[in-house]
Amino acid sequence: MKYFHAISRFSVAVGSLSGLATGAMMLVILTDVIGRAFFASPLPLATEISVMLLIAKVFLGMAGAQATDSNFQVTILIDNLSPRALHWQRLLSLAVALAGIGIIAWFTAKYAISATEQGEASFGVYHWPIWPERIILSVGLCLLVLQIAVDLVGSAIWGDEKMKAGLPHHSGAI
Fold this sequence. Notes:
- By secondary structure, this protein is mostly helical.
- It has one domain (2-173).
- Helices cover 74% and strands 2% of the residues.
- It is built from 5 helices and 2 strands.
- Strands 1-2 form a two-stranded parallel ribbon.
- α1 packs antiparallel against α2 (46-67) and α3 runs antiparallel to α4.
- The model has no long low-confidence stretch (mean pLDDT 90).
């Protein structure tokens, strides 16, 4: 079980990078706004940098949100299920998520490899490489797939509560 918790803790740590991306994005936008307003000189590549930071914020944070159970859930249909039925519902939900997100991650990884090999870049005033963004997106999705797999296997073996023991928990149930 310690390996499962280590993967979950790694997901949470990578998710913390998404918080840093938020702060960096705020600094880029603030610098751009001040440059435009007071010096009539916008920050070059501010939009491109902000997009890359937004991708990092969203996709690097997903596995951490999964690990801490921070995703919002609408529980109207499952609120009255027995603990046993709730456990089976969670396993089914994780299996469906694993299959769906696994397929998306597979195609995203293939595309990231292709974009990197081609040196994909934007066509604008400035040359900006897009392939690093594709890699960030792919890594984030692959980490999410790994975390869902850990949650699925761990919940199947040890149960839902024991699997989440020792990790931060932020219920997003509505």
